[in-house]
Input
Amino acid sequence: MENKAIIIVDMLNDFVTGELKCERAGCIIPNLKKLIDAAHIHSVPVIFSNDAHYPQDAEVVHKWGKHAIKGTKGAEVIPELKPSKKDYVVEKRAYSGFYETGLDPLLRSLFDGEGVKTVILCGLHTHMCVRHTAADAFFRGYKIIVAKDGVDAFTQEDHEQGLKYLYDTYNAKLMTSDEIISEFAKTS
Ligand code: ZN
Output
């Protein structure tokens, strides 16, 4: 696992407790907290990929209604996972964290310009924003790890189908947060 970075997708108030509340999201918070703490200890960059919508965005108008509107409380990372000063926050306006954002240039600039080689994806939802972010990561040549106990969806079925799709389509390695943390310890 060389040059890795963690990407935390949409762990925002609106997705956890607000407009698009996901009852199951609570279960992954401790695992994400643990992963982020370990990343800080082992100098693994942590990137928050956050919805920050304009009201006229396609996702808002054609599908989900108002959620994570830029500048609102709903668009902030949940208090439990509040980004630290050394973390990166990249706003997005569509499912994928790469779509018309600065995520790819950021990843390529890290590790003294060597760039990130492996992205570790966590957050919400396994079969939507995580899946679309994985697709774009795959197209750009990144290896993908998914923290299988650090992603979730509205239902168990969506979550499991999401994991299967990530594995089948993008060869995502599905690991527990503890397995990922022990890899950090080995390679740092
Ligand atoms: Zn959205």
